[in-house]
Here is the input.
Amino acid sequence: MHILTADGCFGSDGFFYAPSINIDTASLEKLFVHKIFKMLLKKSLITERVIELISTWKHTGFGVYCGKRINPIDARSTENLARYIIRA
Here is the structure.
C-alpha cells in the first residue's frame, strides 16, 4: 500500500500552509503502524499474536518517507511522482 499525503493544508484564505519544521518520520511511522493495526484489529482482520510477530521483524513492511517538496509548477518532478504512483 502506498499513500501520498500533503505535508500541510489549505487555509480559509486559499493559501497552502506547510510546517517549517522537519517532520519526525520515526514517530510518524510508529503512529501510522499503531493506527493500521488498531483498524485491522477492530475489523477482526488481524490478531494480537500476528501484531506481536510482525513487531519482531527487522523489516515490517511499514515505512514513512518525507522527500523534498514538489512545486506544482515543476512539471518534471510532478510527472516523475505520477509515474511512481502508477507503478505501484
User: Anything to note?
Assistant: The two ends are 8 Å apart (CA to CA). The chain has three helices and two strands. The chain has a mean pLDDT of 87. The first strand starts at residue 9 and ends at 10.
